[in-house]
Amino acid sequence: MKLYNFGLSGNAYKARLMLGFLGLDYERINVDLASGEQTQDDFLAINPAGQVPVLVDQDNVITDSHGILFYLAKAYSNGSDVEWLPESPVDLARVAVLISQVSDDVNNGLSAARLVKLFGVPLDYEQAKDRALKHLTKLEQSLSGKEFLLGDKPTLADIAMYPYVKTAADGGVDLAPYSNVNEWLKRFEALPRYVDING
Question: Which of 156, 60, 70, 171 is nearest to 111 (CA)?
Fold first, then answer.
């Protein structure tokens, strides 16, 4: 199994988290985004979108971070101590809703603010920061009385949400006012086989 990766990418970090939680061995292939390696023909042959992460598992090529989470959960989580992808139709729908929020609110808020501050991407920073703060306020409220996003156990939604919340400070967003969010981060980081962004 191979993971095409960029160390500072929150999306690639989602894949590394899932691989870690499942205890899977894999080869990490770092893609130098700064030099444009993702635009070279060799990489575009693997992912025509020119983005990381990409997971290659035998003949299966998965080219989206959330797709990778779902793939790994279905293919490799038998025997896992966590039901990353719930069997209950209602809980599965809730996971999908939360991951949709990540694709919208988080990407256009926390992630966008981080792209501006960390990488100099020309986006509207104030708009991104405003959206990030609104998202964190909703997240703070939704975590009231809950251990994880869906209740007392983590799911794929927690993995999808975690990286860009954890790295909010990179985008100039202060997490100090959000006590529920900070407690959730601590519980997530205490899960067995957790790996930090540098791992």
Answer: 171
